[in-house]
Fold:
Amino acid sequence: MKLNEVRDLAEASKTRKRVGRGIGSGKGKRAGRGDKGQKSRSGVSINGFEGGQMPLYRRLPKRGFTNAKFTNDFNIVSIDRVEQAVAAKKLDAKKPVTVEALVEAGVLRRARDGVRLLGDGEAKSKLKFQVAGASKSAVEKVEKAGGSVEILASAKPEPKAKDEPAETAAQE
Structure:
């Protein structure tokens, strides 16, 4: 037996059903879909339909809420990535590392609501970071290398407390 003579068994693969090819084929006219109705039409998807009964996804309560007004969308940068930029002479180690400096160096594509520094990698150079947030391990590694991490105020507004009186009431 040669490699070009190797064949599948005859019953190993089924032949495709050719529907709608004339009454004589046994699957002509309605192509095995029955008579009329929604399911006989093409492009019908009835997922989640429970025959008129209230479907499960509507019986269960809605949960959760995210208030986009007060959420921050931070750029996440690791110490390792910053060190690579310093080694490639894209970042100046003497100047503070800010969002603008990281965008200019090509580490970030665009400045969002600030930068959050993560402790992946090793801090080798003495860098001064000015970021919106940093992990504990990142702060430890930067300070161990002789640098510093300054956490900046959030760019988004702080939510007001409910017990604070309105400005007009305070002036009276």
Remarks:
- The mean pLDDT is 87.
- Helices lie at 56-59, 79-87, 99-105, 136-144, 167-171.
- Residues 79-87 form the longest helix (9 residues).
